[in-house]
Amino acid sequence: MLKKYNQSIQKFGRTLLLPIGVMAPVGMVMGITGAFVQSYMIERFPILGNPIINTTLVSIRSIASIVFDNIPLLFAMGVAYGMSKKDKGIAVFSSVIGYLVMLIAMNVWLQATGNLADPDVMSQVGQIQVLGIQTLNINALGGIIAGLIAAWATDRFHNLQLPVAFAFFAGKKSVSIICIGIMALLGVTIPWVWQFLVAGLTKLSVIFLSPAGPFFTAAGERAFIPFGLHHLWNSLFRFTEAGGTYVINGETYVGVVPALTEILFNLGPSSEYWDLMPSLTRFMAQQQMLCTMFAFPAIALAMYRTSYKENRPLVKSLMITCVVTALLGNVTEPLEFSFVFISPVLYIIYACIIGLGAVALSFAHVAIGYIRGTIFDFAIFGLLYEKTNWIAFLIIGLILSVVTYFVFKWFILHFDIKTPGREDAPSLDNTLIREKQYDKIAEIVIDALGGKGNIKNVDNCITRLRIDVGDIKLIDNEKLKQSGCSGIFFPAPQHIHIVFGPMVEFVRNAVDEHLEKM
Fold first, then answer.
1. Most buried among 4, 267, 319, 439, by the most CB within 10 A?
2. Cα–Cα dist 184/199, whole Å
3. Which residue ranges traverse the bilayer (predicted)?
4. Domain boundaries, the chain
């Protein structure tokens, strides 16, 4: 049972690499262009305000943002494709339909119960506009649910038989119909649970102004990102009394952001109110900078060092992209999503480390920030502004980075967490792979497995072909070795793993093409 569970977790983790692989490079583009169109960047570098340059940057950002505006949809399709065994096309199709139905079902519930918020304040109550539908912001979790349901329904009902009168709706067509029903029920159930969660978060806001407040705001933001509730969490102290009330020049400002904006952009470091900055910024960008500038490089290095040596070239490119995406664009999801669903415990530890770092910044009276947490923001609001105590920020950040690296490295190795590059044993290179003779490899594999008739399903992970066969006795192990594979495993009856290394996807494509032609 435990072995089967571990295999399922590994498979689920692999499915997340598809959307993450798209998010990482797109996020880097969006982050860079987004940083260069900020008003404070234009103020300091006037050339960015040139109409042609500005329009180009804004246009690129808008095009790239469509990916991040629809992260749940990416996860729905990716999970459905990766988890289904029988008909991946139907699974992906059904996941999209199911996700859309869930969105509108949640919208219907919100309208029927009078909980549909005004668009101007919907983010403050955990709602969002998705594909033109105002609904609950459950972020990637909603897409993952839709993908898992679609994969299950596909494998379970793709060959469903019905009475003759309903035969048109049988088989593959039934999968989407079943998903519609299930997701509609989930769509009107989730908001009922969500309202209690939101109410609980609101009551917790009384702790924000305590000395331990930065721990809860920083750790809470990380913890709620997978559920899409971080915007609600942040809004509690940024725009309500939960973040305090501040009297500046006789005017009362409610929440952190209005007060911070007035002091940072209007009054400046020479103002008597600049002394308020450490109490305001402790909830803002400097918390995010701990992630993007220090924790993320440490996490990426830990994942790289703990990955199998033969997988490191692929892991290296992914990790660099994820770090740069966060460092330049304040986009953290690609790296966080690479391990949050694989090891929630490790993610909680990560959130706590960031929370403790935020408390340390508060006690050191660091005063860096506005909202974003990129390296540009550090340079502008940390280095260029006075009295920010940026040296203490760097010292605390470096300590946090070292701690994060060793905690992640130990945890990954001790509990054998299947982070990118650790899904399978390392594979060795070979002549056929080096020469990219994928067609030749495919011919050998198919013949060694007993021909097309004995092959029931072909799949792959980061290094292995994973194939279901009809009769395991027909497999010729010696012939398989001629393909240049570096390992052959039988983890389950009628199921074989063939290790080819990082280029296995091209081998799998060649196998699929040969099977179609036969």
1. 319
2. 24
3. 16-42, 62-83, 90-110, 130-153, 174-194, 283-302, 314-331, 337-360, 391-412
4. 2-204, 213-414, 431-517
Which tens digit of pLDDT belongs to each residue from 146-180?
999 999 999 888 887 878 777 777 788 889 999 99
Instruction: Identify residue 452 by its one-letter amino acid code.
Output: K
Query: 84 and 154 in contact (C-beta within 8 Å)?
Result: yes
Write the CA distances from 80 to 156, 344, 471, integer angstroms. Answer: 13, 21, 28
**114 phi, psi to nearest 5 deg:** 75, 20
- Alpha-carbon distance values, 192 to 35, 115, 196, 242, 342 (Å): 38, 11, 7, 25, 27
Helices 213-224 and 230-239: crossing angle, nearest 10°?
A: 150
Buried b (16+ CB within 10 A) or exposed e, 25-50: bbbbbbbbbbbbbbebbbeeeeebee
For residue 462, give every residue at least 6 positions away whose Cβ sits within 8 Å of its Cβ, in sequence order, or none. Answer: 14, 17, 311, 314, 420, 421, 423, 424, 502, 504
Tokens representing residue 347 in the block: 């993610």
Residue in the block written with tokens 């008597």: 272
Give residue 102's pLDDT: 94
Q: pLDDT under 70 in the chain at which residues? A: 1-14, 16-17, 20-21, 23-24, 27-28, 31, 35, 40, 124, 198-206, 228-229, 231-232, 235, 239-241, 423-431, 461-463, 486-487, 491, 501-502
- Assess contact for 337 and 20: CB atoms under 8 A: yes
Q: Write down the residue that tokens 């103020």 correspond to.
A: 43
Q: Residue 115: in which H helix or E strand, if any?
A: none
Question: What residues act catalytically?
Answer: 461
Q: Determine the Cα–Cα distance for residues 470 and 473; give it in Å rounded to an integer.
A: 9
431-517 in CATH: which number? 3.30.1360.60
Could you read off the pLDDT of 318-341 as tens digits, one per residue? Answer: 889 889 888 887 878 778 878 887
Residue 211: CB atoms within 10 A of its CB come to: 10
